[in-house]
């Protein structure tokens, strides 16, 4: 019976601040967020005081000052512990529902209360994909709009806001990863199907946090910093490895020598990854941010699975019969790779064939297992939050009693030898975790701003003149223009003196409507058919023009070879200091008789 996985129980809480809405309205939820923020500010204040006191304690040589500072330090540490416990209690009371004033009417329910299942994930992914269209349509690459995206830190409750849409996308992606962890923790891992679903969910959570770490920088909140995301990725990988251990215990029908060795090595692997997570949580940039209950739980799991690895090693040695000469090479090969270091005492050959030597080594493993179980229970008792989790206490007591029972079973009254120190188990797994990056393409969405036209043309990257309506009559030679392209159709040429030219149409205009019928998405043939079907009264055409199109058309009329000659000419004239030297160039166009005109053109 293994420990349950550790879920991320709080999602990032979000709201979009814009004109006409107040995200700081004094609802019960916002009051709770303000309380979390105030407590976190008090914690930061106490930490600064502690740092100053520690520096003073190191710097002073006055014993009286040292005593005063030591007393103050004990007072500050006590306050810090109380504040952190109060913050954790508030975090446990937070309903992990999102609170958002969303830009998209079809998706408010998804962002306020996403269901903890695949449907909720699909809605969050749909919102994330819509942000792609929003970014390209309305957010210029070199200008920030006056929209603030406001989010709360997932653990401290401290509000953060930015004008960059990337902050909104990163926060939604964080929620996607957090939602995957909740789905994984809710699975019934007593069945093989439930374990597989949990493994898949935690791997996707690791992929979401890893994708966020690699593609989002300069985070204004601590939970989206590189150090925090790195810790979360490792935590998800550790939970995947724990689920793999549970899968092995479920699928191992036989309790033979090789099966018990495999389970012991799987447990050692789980201990290894949780130890890595604990080291990450105790680093300087993460230690003061991660809740104490999280770090304690990870430490407890590390000790617990180390105990389990030694327990299953003892079962393999004590419950399996002696090895025959025919099976000895196979057993010896498996056992030589089992320990990190070679056990002290007799050779492996003798240990495998002598039941008494196997009992002695098994007893050493059980002794170490009991010590690790007791250490896990001691660490567990230090955390107020974990002491409230009855199921956790039951699991620790259950495994501890099993190790004690097995030790009493193999312990003999006549044992006068001193039990040696068993070497650690070499970690090994048959299923390494996989970081599954989010697959945004699997959720198909339709741009809710579809009617504005194709994104490749009608986007924030292009600047447009105001749309205008032109009445175009048919002359003897037709409309006097040529069309090109699809969605939208472009006016490729205008005949001088023709009907289109007199109506004010220009080369480079885009046709967006014909007789008030929207044709931004129309094909070339469809627009031509609409224009041909009109009578003598003519047709009303809606057109838009890119602001840069006039300059582009002028430059397009200039011969590139002539431009190069002009540039060389400018350099020669400037170096010679003689403006009259321009007359030596016979390729100058009409109307350009001075150097200043040429410079203005270039």
UniProtKB/TrEMBL annotation:
<dbReference type="InterPro" id="IPR036034">
    <property type="entry name" value="PDZ_sf"/>
</dbReference>
<protein>
    <submittedName>
        <fullName>Rhophilin Rho GTPase binding protein 1</fullName>
    </submittedName>
</protein>
<feature type="domain" description="REM-1">
    <location>
        <begin position="22"/>
        <end position="96"/>
    </location>
</feature>
<dbReference type="Pfam" id="PF00595">
    <property type="entry name" value="PDZ"/>
</dbReference>
<dbReference type="InterPro" id="IPR004328">
    <property type="entry name" value="BRO1_dom"/>
</dbReference>
<dbReference type="GO" id="GO:0007165">
    <property type="term" value="P:signal transduction"/>
</dbReference>
<feature type="domain" description="BRO1">
    <location>
        <begin position="55"/>
        <end position="455"/>
    </location>
</feature>
<dbReference type="Pfam" id="PF03097">
    <property type="entry name" value="BRO1"/>
</dbReference>
<dbReference type="InterPro" id="IPR036274">
    <property type="entry name" value="HR1_rpt_sf"/>
</dbReference>
<keyword id="KW-0175">Coiled coil</keyword>
<dbReference type="InterPro" id="IPR038499">
    <property type="entry name" value="BRO1_sf"/>
</dbReference>
<dbReference type="InterPro" id="IPR047138">
    <property type="entry name" value="RHPN1_2"/>
</dbReference>
<dbReference type="InterPro" id="IPR001478">
    <property type="entry name" value="PDZ"/>
</dbReference>
<feature type="domain" description="PDZ">
    <location>
        <begin position="469"/>
        <end position="537"/>
    </location>
</feature>
<comment type="similarity">
    <text>Belongs to the RHPN family.</text>
</comment>
<dbReference type="InterPro" id="IPR011072">
    <property type="entry name" value="HR1_rho-bd"/>
</dbReference>
<dbReference type="GO" id="GO:0051497">
    <property type="term" value="P:negative regulation of stress fiber assembly"/>
</dbReference>
<dbReference type="Pfam" id="PF02185">
    <property type="entry name" value="HR1"/>
</dbReference>
């Amino acid at each position: 019976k293994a420990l349950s996985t550790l879920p991320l129980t709080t999602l990032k809480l979000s709201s979009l601040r814009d004109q006409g809405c107040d995200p700081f309205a004094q609802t019960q939820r916002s009051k709770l967020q303000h309380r979390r923020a105030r407590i976190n500010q008090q914690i930061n204040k106490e930490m600064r005081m502690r740092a100053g006191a520690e520096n003073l304690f190191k710097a002073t040589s006055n014993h009286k000052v040292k005593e005063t500072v030591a007393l103050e330090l004990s007072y500050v540490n006590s306050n810090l512990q109380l504040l952190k416990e109060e913050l954790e209690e508030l975090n446990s009371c937070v309903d992990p529902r999102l609170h958002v004033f969303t830009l998209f009417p079809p998706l408010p329910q998804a962002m306020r209360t996403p269901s903890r299942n695949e449907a909720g994930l699909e809605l969050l992914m749909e919102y994330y994909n819509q942000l792609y269209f929003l970014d390209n349509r309305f957010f210029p690459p070199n200008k920030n709009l006056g929209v603030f995206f406001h989010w709360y830190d997932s653990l401290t409750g401290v509000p953060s806001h930015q004008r960059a849409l990337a902050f909104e996308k990163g926060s939604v992606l964080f929620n996607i990863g957090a939602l995957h962890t909740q789905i994984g923790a809710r699975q019934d891992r007593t069945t093989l199907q439930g374990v597989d679903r949990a493994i898949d969910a935690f791997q996707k959570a690791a992929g979401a946090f890893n994708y966020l770490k690699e593609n989002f920088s300069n985070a204004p909140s601590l939970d989206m910093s590189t150090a925090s995301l790195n810790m979360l990725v490792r935590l998800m990988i550790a939970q995947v490895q724990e689920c793999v251990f549970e899968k092995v215990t479920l699928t191992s029908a036989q309790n033979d020598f090789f099966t018990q060795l495999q389970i012991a090595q799987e447990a050692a692997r789980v201990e290894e990854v949780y130890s890595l997570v604990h080291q990450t949580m105790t680093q300087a940039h993460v230690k003061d941010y991660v809740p104490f209950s999280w770090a304690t739980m990870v430490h407890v799991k590390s000790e617990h699975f180390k105990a389990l690895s030694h327990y299953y090693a003892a079962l393999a040695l004590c419950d399996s019969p002696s090895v025959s000469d025919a099976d000895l090479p196979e057993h010896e090969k498996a056992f030589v790779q089992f320990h990190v270091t070679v056990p002290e005492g007799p050779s492996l050959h003798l240990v495998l064939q002598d039941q008494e030597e196997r009992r002695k080594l098994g007893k050493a493993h059980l002794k170490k297992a009991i010590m690790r179980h007791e250490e896990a229970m001691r660490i567990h008792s230090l955390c107020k939050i974990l002491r409230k989790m009855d199921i956790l206490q039951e699991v620790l007591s259950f495994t501890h009693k099993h190790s004690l029972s097995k030790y009493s079973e193999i312990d003999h009254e006549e044992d006068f030898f001193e039990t040696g120190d068993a070497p650690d188990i070499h970690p090994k797994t048959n299923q390494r975790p996989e970081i599954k990056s989010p697959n945004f393409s699997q959720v198909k969405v339709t741009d809710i701003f579809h009617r504005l036209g194709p994104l490749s043309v009608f986007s924030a990257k292009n600047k447009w003149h105001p749309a205008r309506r032109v009445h175009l009559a048919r002359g003897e030679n037709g409309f006097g223009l040529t069309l090109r392209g699809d969605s939208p159709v472009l006016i490729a040429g205008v005949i001088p003196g023709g009907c289109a030219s007199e109506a004010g149409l220009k080369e480079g205009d885009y046709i967006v409507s014909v007789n008030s019928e929207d044709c931004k998405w129309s094909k070339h043939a469809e627009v031509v058919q609409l224009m041909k079907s009109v009578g003598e009264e003519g047709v009303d055409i809606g057109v838009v023009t890119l602001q840069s199109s006039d300059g582009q058309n002028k430059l397009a009329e200039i011969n590139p070879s002539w431009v190069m000659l002009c540039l060389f000419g400018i350099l020669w004239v400037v170096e010679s200091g003689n403006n009259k030297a321009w007359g030596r160039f016979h390729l100058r166009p009409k109307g350009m008789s001075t150097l200043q005109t040429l410079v203005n053109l270039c």
